[in-house]
Design a protein that fits this description.
Layout: H1 3-10, H2 12-20, H3 43-46, H4 48-58, H5 80-95, H6 99-104, H7 109-117, H8 122-128, H9 143-162
Helix pairs in contact: 1-2, 5-9
Length: about 160
């Protein structure tokens, strides 16, 4: 029972009407005044008759299945500014690598990551200076690990240049 009905039923007018019409409830309608918030330009898109008609003609529902939302766990990404700074830092670190090393990976940090993830590339990674000698295999690396490694290599190269 709504609060509006309860108030009406307890009012003198409501009590009188309920006494004259036993077993019936009052007819309540809600009337809104003022400008409607409903956007009328979408009324045809919501009309079930038009939706079914379009489906029978085309065999497709009115939404584009290729553009439906996707669900991805991005809880570890952080905020936009941090992610952007991280990517920028990774690019800068990659660009500090030797020109020949960057050329080997077609100037793509992603290709470097893919290369480092493959344990069969350990020997070549050591030759390129991307891994320490004697490493049994390159563990699964994260982007952060690679950025840190590239920073270390960049600092080592800078120290060697100063000597």
């Amino acid at each position: 029972m709504s609060l509006k009905y309860k108030k009406w039923a307890e009012s003198p007018e409501g009590k009188k009407w309920l006494k004259e019409n036993p077993g019936k409830k009052g007819d309540f309608k809600t009337y809104f005044t003022g400008e409607s918030l409903t956007r009328q330009e979408f009324k045809d898109d919501c009309d079930i008759n038009r939706i079914v008609d379009k489906y029978t003609r085309t065999g497709r529902l009115p939404y584009d299945a290729d553009n439906l939302g996707i669900y991805v766990d991005v809880s570890e990404v952080g905020d936009y500014q941090s992610a952007l700074a991280f990517v920028t830092n990774a690019k800068e670190s990659f660009n500090k690598l030797d020109v020949n090393v960057r050329k080997r990976f077609e100037n793509s940090p992603q290709k470097l990551l893919d290369f480092l993830k493959d344990p069969e590339n350990t020997d070549e990674a050591i030759k390129l200076g991307l891994a320490k000698d004697g490493s049994p295999k390159i563990p699964e690396t994260t982007l952060k690990d690679v950025v840190d490694a590239v920073k270390t290599i960049g600092k080592t190269e800078e120290a060697n240049d100063e000597k």
